[in-house]
């Protein structure tokens, strides 16, 4: 009796403490969020969508979360999934370039207990059901987190949508296989299965936040978009989302895939590298503390790209194979990339030899022709950027858009070319990820943002929001964006001003399609 009385008193005290905060009830648990300052948006942060994947649940599929509280504080972000500080250092480099101290970007808290999502909604307590935008972050499937500063969803939500950002296991915690992991349907792709679990949670519970479970748009950048491509072609995911926006993605989704046999063999080598006196078993590897496993995995798997695996359960066939056969469910989409994705990462002392190597890497059967296609450009770094951006983003995107459009999906393609003003903008140009603060309306305080940047932001957000709301990016305040199937394969160049152009790099993309046929 005394325990029940104390429990009731504690719950009453907690309820009074959280009385002024927005609340929703999900699966019997009261979530207490917070109001975003100066807006009508409520934020619910750090919501668990699956059980903590720790101990024996390491390298298992996501398990159902069992509510532990009557009232849960959902006003703070949860730690990021296990990773090194690579993207933190990237932000610090960028901040320093724009004249700020490196410590303007804080260290990132990480934990193996990381399967949480965040919701921003302007419709708590409303009978209206708003379209839902679910963001999947990038980071090469080994870095990144759902609440990076540019991913906060309040500005989008203020325009009449519910925004969700999700976490998933990364690196060797999330993309791993081993012969001993052979029980049940989930034997690989743990990070991808996490995304499926998050989407199922959203499908089941988003109405509590004022969202429409039948109008879910996925959007993601880089490997996050690549994971969306995998989910588009995965088994039994058709009802989890309606349409997609793929930002700087296509090459990640088309070609980056591993066989289960190869991934299991890598897992064996991984276990051998961890063991001092022979390979460790999966049970022994599960016993290694997360921080230690992260450190050792970072050394063992350095340079390895953690792609989705053809596991026979979630993924049975490669994306390129399904596109070729026409065996896929066509969805409306926006797809595009940035004008100079890789320029900032090309060495300033690049020479003809490195340019030749790059051409042979990305156009192995047509290296000479690829070099000829960019020869008129006097800046060697721009030539190299054109080769890599075309092969990794632009041309796979055009190929993907053409296949989707031919299958009957409404498809729009963009090229984002806005660069920041001043010396820093000239050094980085329209780099990989530059569009993100323009999409979310979340420009960093330490980055100079001009009136032109704000105008480009308004146009970009309008396109993304109208697509989420209506299935078409065109609205009354933006320049008309023709469907990609229109003659000439029109592309919308997002800058100031916005304009419609023909698909860029026609010769390089012709060579890319030839390479794609040869590699099959």
Envelope shape = globular
End-to-end Cα distance: 70 Å
Sheet-strand content, in percent, reads 15-25%
CATH homologous superfamily of the largest domain - what is it?
A: Alpha/Beta hydrolase fold, catalytic domain
**Overall structural domain count:** 2
CATH level 3 topology of the largest domain: Rossmann fold
Could you characterize what this model shows?
This protein has 520 residues and is an alpha/beta fold. It has 2 domains: 22-329, Alpha/Beta hydrolase fold, catalytic domain (Rossmann fold), CATH 3.40.50.1820; 343-520, Alpha/Beta hydrolase fold, catalytic domain (Rossmann fold, 3-Layer(aba) Sandwich). The protein is 38% helix and 15% strand. The strands form 3 sheets. An 11-stranded mixed beta sheet has the order 3-4-6-8-7-9-10-13-14-15-16, with helices on both faces. Helix 12 (352-362) packs parallel to helix 14 (380-406) and helix 14 (380-406) crosses helix 18. The chain is globular. 48% of the residues are buried.
